[in-house]
Amino acid sequence: PALTIGLGVYLPFALSSIVALGGIVRLVADRRGGSATANGQVIASGVLGGEAVTGVLIALIRLATG
Fold first, then answer.
1. Tens-place pLDDT, residues 36-58
2. The pTM is what?
3. How far, CA to CA in Å, does 18 sit from each of 33, 50, 65?
4. C-alpha to C-alpha distances, 58 to 45, 53, 64, nearest whole angstrom
């Protein structure tokens, strides 16, 4: 819970919305039951990891193009 508040305070909406999207994916997976919980964790982690990699790539492109 403290991490969520910290993310909301320090990160811009574009980044914290991805965290919220990962949480929603997890919630949907939990409600479906069965093995969907493990799948939901994988999908949510993929969304967060993909966002991080994309952010780094965008920063490198902006740095290269000036």
1. 566 667 777 777 778 778 888 88
2. 0.44
3. 23, 10, 26
4. 20, 9, 10
